[in-house]
Amino acid sequence: MDKKQIINQLRAAKSAHIKWRSYAQAMVAGIPVSQEQVPVIHTDCAFGKWYYGGGQMLSTLESFSAIEVPHENLHAIYIELYKRINGLEMPGKVAKLKGKHKKLDLQEELNSLLHSLIEMSKTLLTAIELLEQEVMRMEDEALAELI
């Protein structure tokens, strides 16, 4: 595998993440999204499959390890969104309210969680870009040793 192929894999994984995030945003907007489109477990999304699969060839690079925590945190935020949207966990203050106010408070909470998810996504994308830059700077011989 050469540098171009590795960069292509990395960019495809990054694109998969951006698509995943759009499904989470759609879900908060009230657009039906199937569970398959927005995996909860960080190892089950397309990016996670790359990161914990083929991407492991880059695991010795400094910038590779900076990806894991934001990726895990992103999915933790998504789990909270999913629970709230699907009524699996209602915070006390929201559960006590009735009617229109309950819906408003829930939507505010969902918007706040979505904002956190988007910010964490930006952190993750920055980490991925740093990995891409590190791979681009590598000499072909050094890259060949990783594969």
Give a short overview:
The protein is an all-alpha fold and 147 residues long.
Fold and architecture overview:
The structure is a single chain. This protein is mainly alpha-helical and 147 residues long. The chain has one domain (3-141). Helix content is 70%, strand content 0%. The chain starts with a helix and ends with a helix.
Describe how the helices and strands are arranged:
Layout: H1 3-28, H2 46-51, H3 65-85, H4 92-95, H5 99-137, H6 140-146
Helix pairs in contact: 1-5, 3-5
Can you tag this structure with a few keywords?
single chain, 147 residues, mainly alpha, 6 helices
The CA-CA distance between the termini, in Å, is 7 Å
Structural class: mainly alpha
Biggest sheet character: none
Q: How many domains?
A: 1
The whole-angstrom Rg is 18 Å
Task: Give the overall shape, derived from the CA principal axes.
Answer: elongated
Helix tally equals: 6
Report low-confidence residues grouped into runs of 5 or more: 90-98
Proportion of beta-strand residues = under 5%
* pLDDT averaged residue by residue: 85
The strand count comes to 0
Helix content, binned percent: over 70%
What string gives the helices and strands in order? HHHHHH
